Amino acid sequence: GAVVSQHPSWVICKSGTSVKIECRSLDFQATTMFWYRQFPKQSLMLMATSNEGSKATYEQGVEKDKFLINHASLTLSTLTVTSAHPEDSSFYICSARMGGGRYEQYFGPGTRLTVT
Amino acid sequence: AQKITQTQPGMFVQEKEAVTLDCTYDTSDQSYGLFWYKQPSSGEMIFLIYQGSYDEQNATEGRYSLNFQKARKSANLVISASQLGDSAMYFCAMREGPNFGNEKLTFGTGTRLTIIP
Questions:
Q1: Which residues of chain B does A32 touch, with a Cβ-Cβ cutoff of 8 Å?
Q2: What are phi and psi of A34, to 5 degrees?
Q3: For labeling, which of A68, A75, A103, B54 is most exposed (least CB within 10 Å)?
Q4: Which helix (H) or strand (E) element contains residue A5?
């Protein structure tokens, strides 16, 4: 149980285009989802926290107009990287919490974005 | 100041030996939680073990145990009888404040563990 999927697993796009990444909790309802970014050989940095039906809370330094997050349902959150640039190339990982007192976050397999 | 410090960037351990991965943390909250995650080369983050700040017993999950020393603010991960499949990056993380549902995790820089046959 507690499986989180991400789609796509990797994507290459041209500079200036937008890319949407989906995060789904497959066998549980996720009251809260988190989006992280990980540069090569570095740790995970939280970008934003999203709760179903409300606006995402962005971490300091993360541009909300560039990284659009929509938590449309209890099983789906999307991250859209708008007008992508090469510096946005990174590994993006989502995680989901069950709620109901459960404490652990379950992570998706990640999406590798390369902007050319 | 770093909230989570992992001082071992890399470790090499002989198969079947036990290994301890260090983690120290910094928080002024009385209620907090500590996590360990494993990240294989494929990239996914795998939850290993959790310790709450009020838990009196050290957490254990199979071959994983967490050596929680609250006064020292350390939460070391111990892997017993290491296996080749344990080779991965290991991240220590902390949730500050009570467990209400949307608290973020702060991650350490990780330790790359390599098990030698």
A1: 101-102
A2: -125, 145
A3: B54
A4: strand A4-7
The neighbouring-strand residues paired with A37 are A45, A92
Which chain B residues touch A if contact means CB-CB below 8 Å?
A: 33, 35, 37, 42-47, 50, 52, 91, 95, 99, 101-102, 104-110
Q: Write out the two tokens for B43.
A: 């990239």
CA distance B72 to chain A (A): 23
Q: How many residues does chain A have?
A: 116
The token pair at A12 is 């290459």
**Cα separation of A38 and A79, whole Å?**
15
Residue B4's contacts (CB-CB under 8 Å, 6 or more residues apart) are B23, B24, B25, B26, B92, B93, B94, B106, B107, B108
Nearest residue, CB atoms, A107 vs list B44, B95, B108: B44
Q: What is the pLDDT of residues B10-54, one digit of tens each?
A: 999 999 999 999 999 999 989 899 999 999 998 889 999 999 999
